[in-house]
Amino acid sequence: MEAGPLRLTRIAVYTMASLPPDPALLRAATPGAILLVHSPRAGERLAERIAANERAMLHIVAISQAALAACGPGWASGSAPHQPVDDDMLALALSLCE
């Protein structure tokens, strides 16, 4: 996945086995941040780690509508590409930066 002009920070939320919470996620989740979610399970884990009252200034770009729904409510915005393609996710993220 080519980031182009975007600055990306990759933080694993889970693998085949759940990982403990990574403090880097909360440090990176600053107002205006765009969080990329690649599966419904990742969306569930993200929703567990970001409290509902801390979501209003964070944006979600998910790989699919199912992954987006798993993130739960309260985010500044949420979107998913028509096809589950990383480059399309990055295009959505870039549009939020403009």
Molecular structure report:
The protein has one domain (23-97). β2, α3 and β3 form a beta-alpha-beta unit. It is built from four helices and three strands, in the order αβαβαβα. Strands 1-2-3 form a three-stranded parallel beta sheet, with helices on both faces. 24% of the residues are buried. The protein has 98 residues and is α/β, with parallel strands linked by helices. It is globular and about 30 Å long.
What distinguishing features does this structure have?
98 residues, three-stranded parallel sheet, 3 strands, alpha/beta
What's a quick, concise take on this entry?
With 98 residues, this protein is α/β, with parallel strands linked by helices. Helices cover 35% and strands 11% of the residues.
Q: How many distinct beta strands?
A: 3
- Helix proportion range: 25-40%
In whole angstroms, the N-to-C terminal distance is 20 Å
- Strands of the biggest beta sheet: in what spatial order? 1-2-3
Write the layout of secondary structure elements.
Blueprint: H1 23-28, E1 34-37, H2 40-49, E2 59-62, H3 65-70, E3 77-79, H4 86-97
Parallel strand pairs: 1-2, 2-3
